[in-house]
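Quick entry between incubations.
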Amino acid sequence: MKRAFLGELEEVVLLTVAALQEQAYCAAITQNIDQQMARSISFPTVHTTLQRLAEKGFVSSQMGGATTERGGRQKRLFTVTTAGQRALIECRHLRSQLWDQIPTPILLLWGA
Amino acid sequence: MGRLTNDQKHDTRPRNDRPPRWATWLMSRFSPSGLEDELQGDLLEMFAYWIKTVGLRGARWRYILAVLRLICPFSGSTTGQILTYSQPGFPSREPQTIFIIKPAMVRNYLKVAWRNLLKNKSFFLINTLGLAFGMAACLLILQYVTFERSYDSFHPDADHIFRIELDSYQNGKLAFRSATSYPAIAPTLKKEFSEVAETARLFAARTNVVTYQNIHHREDNFYFADNSIFNIFKIDFLRGNQATALTDKNTVVLSETTARKYFARENPLGKTIKLGRTPYLVKGVYKDYPKNSHLELDLIFSYLTEPDAQTSWGWYAFYTYVKLKPIARVEQFRAKIVNLVQKYVPNEAKNGNRSELLLQPLPDIHLFSNLNQEAEANGNGQSVAVLSVIALFILVIAWINYINLATARAMDRAKEVGIRKVAGAERAQLISQFLIESVLPNLLAVALALIIVQASAPYFSDLTGNPLSLNQWLQHDLWLPAFGIFLGGTLLSGLYPALLLSGFQPITALKGKLSHLTSGLSLRQSLIVFQFAASIILMVGTLTVYRQLRFMQEQDLGFSSAQKLIVRGVLAPDSTYGAKVDAFQQELLKARFVEKTTTSTHIPGMEILWANSARRVDRADAVDNTLYNTAIDDHFLEAYAIRLLAGRNFNRAFGTDRTNALLNETAVKLLGFSSPSDALGKFIGTGDTLQIVGVVKDFHQQGLQKGHWPMLLRFRPDAAQFFSLQLASTRNLTQRLASIQAQYERIFPGNPFEYFFLDDFFNKQYKAEQRFGRVSGLFASLAIFIACLGLFALATFIAKQRTKEMGIRKVLGASVPSLIGLLTKDFLKLIIIAIGIATPLAWYAMSRWLVDFAYHIAVPWWAFVVAGVGAIGLALVTVSLQSIRAALLNPVKSLRSE
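Done. Structure below.
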C-alpha cells in the first residue's frame, strides 16, 4: 500500500487505544467504546479491527499482566506506533480542513 | 489445555455465572493459532461486563456469538494489505481456514448442482419424491414407535418400579402367569426387605355405575388402591392432599375430566359420590393420568376393608407395585422374592403346587407383558420392532435410489471432475462438492416429508389407533429425528457417489474411457437386489398377516355367533332378580323375532377371571388344577349350538343341578379322565363338591391367539350378567331394538339398557392384528412404490445411455423384441436373485410371527408366488416402458444425435 488509509471504525479503535494508553487491550477497548458511543461494536469486530491495524503497522502489541478476573490469562496490550500517530494526526488535520471550508454563517445556522 | 483445568479450580463463582462451557471448549479448540490465551481472557472479562450491562441471558448469548465469530474461518482479516506482522509477539499467521470448503467454491458448487438438477429434472423429481415419501413414512413410524415405547416412563424413577407377576405351577407344570397377585405380598415385601422403598396394591373393580345426585355414569377405569400409590406413580394433585387422600376408608379421588363430568364447576372436595350403593367421600382431584400408561385411572377409591384383602395368600386379584430404593440390586432382589410364597404358604408345596413371584419393570409392561388379567389390552413389542424395521427398510430403499442414480450419472460428470482436477482441485474438495450437492435433494425431501407427516398424521393415528393428539406432540419430537434423517441421509447417500466420482483419474475421465467402470455397476446391482428383496419380504409379510386374519375369522369357533344380540344384565341384582330374568326372557320370546334366549355370567370373547382350583374327589393322589368358571342357564348350550359329547345338559326340572357341573374337553383331559364318558357321575371339589353330569365339546372362549381354557360350567339361571338373544333376522333392527329396550326398562327400571352384537364383540380381539395388517400393508406398498420409482429412473437412464448401441444393433438387423429383451434382461436377473434371497428370510420371519397364535396357518406358499410374480411384473412394466421406447427409436435419429 502506498498510503495507509484509516477507516472510520479503525479510527475509533485507534483513538481509543491512544486514549487508554497503558490499559489498551481488546476487552477494555470494546467496553470503552460501548460506554462512550451510542452504538455498540461487538467484541469480535474490535478484535478484527485491531488485527487489521496491526497489519497496517498502526499499532504494536506486547503481552501484559494477567489478572484473576480474566482467569489468569495474559492480555495483549496495544500501543500506537509512530505510523499510527501520524495517521491519526493526518486524519484529524484532514477533517478540520474540511470543517474550515464550511462557511461560518452556515455553521451558525446549524447551531454548531 | 492445562490452563483451563487450572482456572476452574480457582473459579469460585456460582456455576451459572460462568459462560457456557461448550462455547469455551469450542474456543479453546478452534481459536486462531497463538491467540487462544488472550482471547479467552478477554472474553471472560467481556462476559463479566455483559452480565452487568445486559444480564446473564444476554451475556451468554453474546459470548456464544463472539466465540462463533472468532473461530469462524472467514472472519480473519480481509484487508490483505500487509500480511506479515512487523511486531514481535504477534505470531505470524496465514489466513488459513480450518475447512477445505472455501466460500467462493461453495457458491460455485451450489450453482453447478442447481444446473445439474435443471438438466435432469425427472431424476431430481424422482429422487426427491422417493426420499420425501421414505422420510415421511419413517418419521410417522418413528413417532408411533416412540409413543409405544414411552409407556409409563413418565414416572420419576420408572426404572426402579416393578409390578409383581405371579407364576403358578400345578403338578410341576406352568398353569398360568398372572399380572395380579396376592394382597399379602405388598405389606410383606415392605416389612421384610430393606431394598423396598414403597409398595402399593391396586384392585380392579368391575364396571359399575357411579352416581352424584342425579348424574349417573358407567365407569370402567377405576381401581381401589393403597394411598401409597401416590408415592410410586406420578399423580399430580390439583386439589386435596395426596399424603392422606385415601388413608380413610370410603374415600375417593377423581381425575380432572371425571370430576368435571360429575361436578361441572362445583368444588368436588367434601362431596359424596356413590359407587353402586356405597357412598364415598371425594378427597382430591388430580391431573388427568397420561394416556401412555398401562393403567387407565379415572377414579381411585380407597383400598378394600375386607380382612381378606389385607392378608390373603390365595386370592390373586391384586396388582402389586414395588418401588425399590436407588441403591437396591435388582437381580439380588429378584432372587430373594422368587420363592417368597413358599415361606408363608407351606401347605402349597405338599399339593404339588408352587407359586413364583417375578418382577416386571414398569416401562416394559405395555409392550412386553402378556399375562392373564392384564390391566389393558397391551401393545405388542414384536410388531413395534417389525414396524421399526419396516421404517428403516423404506428409508434405506429411498437412499439407495439416490446412490444408484448418482453413480449411474457418474459418466455425465466424469468430464467435469477431470477438468476440476486438472485445474487443481484436491480430492477432498471434490468430495465436499458432491456432498454439498446431495444436500439439495435431501433438504427439499425433508421439507416435503414434514409437510406429508403433518397432513397425514390424523389418518395415521386413525390407522394405528393411537390416542395421542399428534399435533401437540409434533412440536417436541419431530425436529430432532427429521434433522437426524436429513444429516444421515446426506452423508450416507452422498458419500459413496462422492468417493466414486472424486476418485477418477483425470486423464481417463477426460478421454471418456470410463465405460468399463464396473465396480459402480456391481454395487448398484446389489443395491437393487436389496431393494427388491426388502419389498418382497414386506409383501409376503402383509399377505401372511391378512391370511392369518381371515383364518381366525373364518375358523369354526365351536359355537354360533351369528345374529346374537347381547344385552347386559343389571349391575346390582337383588333377591327378586331371578324371577325378573325369567319374566324378561318370556316376554322376549313372545315376540317372534327373538328365537332363543339364554343367560350367563360370561360370553365368548371375554377373558374369564372367575377361576378356582379343582381336584378329583375319587382319587386320593389327585392334584389341584385351575378351572375357569362360567355360570349358565339351561338354554345356553342350545342357544350357542355347543355340542354335548357325553351326559346331559342342565335341567331346571331336576332342581338339583346347582350342585352339578358341565366340563369341557380340555378340563376333562386336565383332570385326568380317560374319556368324556369316564368323567360322568364323578365328583370334583372346588370349595364345594360338584358332580359332573355332562361334557361339552371345546369352544373358543377367546380369540384364536389363545388356546382352549379348561372350563367348568355351573348352573345359575338367575346369575344373568348377560342375556344372549338369538335374532331371527336383522331386518327392522332399530324397531326391534326399541321394543326390546321397552321390555327391559319395564322389567328392570332404573338400569341402563346396553347391548352389542356378539360377532363384533368377538372380533374386537383381532383389532391389533387388523391394525398391524393395515399398517404393514400400507408401508409395504410404499416401499415397493419407492423401489419401482428408483428402478424406473435407472432404466430411463440406462436406456438413454445405450441409445447408440441400440441404433447400431437395429441397423445390423436386430428385432424390436430382442432389443427389449436385451434391455430388460439385466434387471430381471436382479429381481430373480432378490426373490431367491427374500424367500427364506420371509419364510423364517413369518413362521416366527405365526408361532404366537395358538391356532395358526402355515406360511402360505402362494404368498411367495404372488410376491415374486408381483415384483417381476412391476419391474417388467417399469423397465419395459423405457426399453420399448429405446428399441422403437428410429436408428437414423439415435445415431445422428451427437
